[in-house]
């Protein structure tokens, strides 16, 4: 079935790229229904990627690879590719695929450079992509429910209610995604056990965790999962039985296009090196071994797959963002940058509250208690609106926001100095990206802060430079994983 797909694999990548780029950014999926032929597979290797300055990574939104928790991007794949991008000195850009089928389509259409998702290495998939060195070994297991009163039963009685050998799966209905490695395994298992399994297909946009939840809820009786994913889900749903193995060990890896040998070699070299360090195993244990952390995360209303919330202050943010005309998720990203949503946070300079307002500024803004979330956000957005008025000459709305954020961080005077420097060197003082931001960085150097254009002297320019970049990078994650409109909270 997968082999038949290869013969017609991918008709024209232009449609896929256009349909992806034209989608709403708040939608975490892309419809890449067209297939492209081998002759039209995108060609872009490491040298071209480095020229662009960006590593574009394709993954899937689920509870282990990539998600938000309390306003912070997290995930096994996310943390690793972030480290990889830093190693390559590239900006990281995440693209979210609808399902596993779309991973391969998007990669070969050139939407991304690397699939960073836990893919089982199979012979069929090796015809579509080149796999990296494997991350870890796992095996596939049957996921089923124990009887409702299992806690009161001895183990031998529990075993009577469950399937304990693959041969017992003959005639049973097992639900999996069509083009998953689980489906392939079930087809091969039928030959091995000499009997038919009733393989029922589940929509491709359902993650493995979603299908496991269907087992927990009694919607279906059986599914298949990699053991490490099943095990972490069992910690939150102890009614699950995952003891029946149905495969030998399998390699789990990432993938690149077949015409990206430089990128493949670089990633493999990096993987071999990183797996010698504690960092790799700390990250693996964090997402696949730390059961307490997983339970706490899955229960939280601020886990992005639950209720689409960023923080407990979403309603306050939405009520105040109107005076700015910004996306509420952008303002939330700034608040995270300032305080990690901790209302009692205080800086070394005396700033306090969610938006880290200085006491004197708070007084001018009519904020009586900077630790009060409502007052603090009201005051912070009022201050942002005041700062924004100083950049009326900046025509581009996004650039104007960046100037405003920089002024919020380091003060209007230092941003004005950077604008004057930018103009003095013949560049555009009304463009932040690659213009004013560069000269703000230079204001930490005596050669520049002593120039006649500079009135406010030295500033640690790297702080506002990173401040703006990090807010916008986090905002990109928020746009992908948090809908623009979410239910108001009190």
From TrEMBL:
The keyword Signal applies. This is Lytic transglycosylase F. PANTHER family: MEMBRANE-BOUND LYTIC MUREIN TRANSGLYCOSYLASE F. It is a peripheral membrane protein. Keywords: Cell outer membrane, Membrane, Signal. The keyword Membrane applies. InterPro entries: Lysozyme-like_dom_sf (IPR023346), Solute-binding_3/MltF_N (IPR001638), Transglycosylase_SLT_dom_1 (IPR008258). It comes from the Bacteria.
């Amino acid at each position: 079935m997968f082999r038949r797909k290869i013969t017609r694999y991918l008709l024209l990548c232009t449609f896929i790229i256009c349909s992806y780029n034209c989608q709403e950014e708040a939608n975490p999926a892309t419809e890449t229904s067209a297939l492209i032929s081998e002759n039209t597979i995108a060609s872009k290797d490491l040298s071209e990627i480095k020229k662009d300055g960006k590593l574009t990574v394709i993954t899937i939104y689920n509870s282990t690879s990539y998600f938000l928790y309390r306003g912070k991007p997290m995930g096994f794949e996310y943390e690793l590719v972030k480290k990889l991008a830093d190693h390559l000195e590239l900006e990281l850009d995440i693209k979210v695929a609808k399902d596993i089928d779309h991973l391969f389509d998007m990669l070969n259409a050139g939407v991304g450079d690397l699939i960073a998702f836990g893919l089982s290495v199979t012979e069929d998939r090796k015809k579509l992509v080149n796999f990296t060195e494997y991350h870890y070994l796992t095996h596939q297991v049957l996921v089923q429910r124990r009887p409702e009163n299992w806690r009161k039963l001895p183990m031998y009685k529990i075993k009577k209610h469950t399937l304990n050998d693959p041969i017992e799966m003959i005639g049973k209905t097992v639900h999996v995604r069509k083009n998953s490695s689980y489906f392939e395994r079930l087809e091969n298992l039928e030959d091995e056990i000499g009997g038919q399994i009733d393989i029922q297909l589940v929509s491709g946009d359902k993650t493995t965790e979603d299908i496991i939840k269907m087992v927990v809820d009694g919607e279906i009786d059986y599914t298949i999962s990699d053991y490490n994913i099943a095990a972490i889900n069992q910690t939150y749903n102890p009614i699950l039985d995952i003891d029946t193995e149905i495969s030998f060990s399998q390699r789990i890896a990432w993938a690149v296009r077949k015409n990206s040998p430089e990128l493949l070699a670089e990633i493999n070299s990096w993987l071999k090196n990183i797996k010698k360090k504690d960092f790799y195993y700390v990250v693996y244990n964090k997402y696949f071994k730390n059961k307490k952390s997983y339970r706490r995360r899955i229960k939280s209303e601020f886990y992005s797959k639950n209720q689409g919330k960023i923080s407990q202050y979403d309603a306050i943010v939405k009520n105040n963002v109107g005076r700015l005309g910004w996306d509420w998720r952008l303002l939330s990203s700034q608040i995270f940058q300032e305080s990690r949503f901790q209302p009692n946070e205080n800086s070394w300079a005396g700033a306090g509250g969610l938006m880290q307002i200085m006491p004197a500024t708070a007084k001018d803004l009519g904020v009586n208690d900077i630790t009060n979330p409502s007052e603090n956000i009201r005051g912070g957005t009022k201050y942002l609106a005041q700062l924004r008025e100083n950049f009326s000459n900046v025509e581009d709305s996004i650039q104007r926001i960046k100037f405003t954020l920089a002024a919020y961080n380091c003060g209007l005077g230092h941003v004005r100095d950077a604008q004057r420097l930018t103009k003095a060197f013949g560049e555009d003082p009304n463009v932040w990206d690659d213009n004013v931001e560069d000269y703000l960085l230079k204001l930490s150097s005596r050669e520049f802060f002593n120039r006649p254009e500079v009135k406010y002297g030295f500033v640690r320019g790297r702080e506002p430079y990173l401040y703006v970049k990090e807010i916008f990078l986090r905002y990109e994650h928020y746009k992908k994983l948090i809908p623009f409109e979410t239910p108001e909270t009190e």
